[in-house]
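Field reference: sequence -> structure
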Amino acid sequence: MKKRIGVVFGTRPDAIKMAPVVFELRKYPGEFEPVVISTGQHRQMLDQVLQIFDVGADIELDLMRHNQTLNGLTCRILAAMDALLAENPLDCLLVQGDTTTAVAAAVAAASTIPTVISESPDEASTQAIGAVLLGESSA
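Structure field:
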């Protein structure tokens, strides 16, 4: 049976690094169904990259707000991903980097589906995502 693989990003660097992953998954339509999910964390810069790579979002969460705070964005991503995962079952979620999108999407998905992070240069974000994925707590 075909595996539905969610590929989530919200910023230009995330999209640049995940576009080749989407292309590779699409080479095997009998095995994988990539589901591209955009949070729109950095809307204008993200849209430029998506046009260049000709990668459209299958699911556009459109969560960017004028003068948004990271706390507000995190809350919106958590809620949106929770609803998305309930309505659109995935077999796995791929996140990239150390952005708010990556951390919040990983937190939202990790308790229900396998979640994979690719390259996180920020040690604190890497540890936070790793702790979530391993079911660990710093408390």
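Note: The two ends are 40 Å apart (CA to CA).
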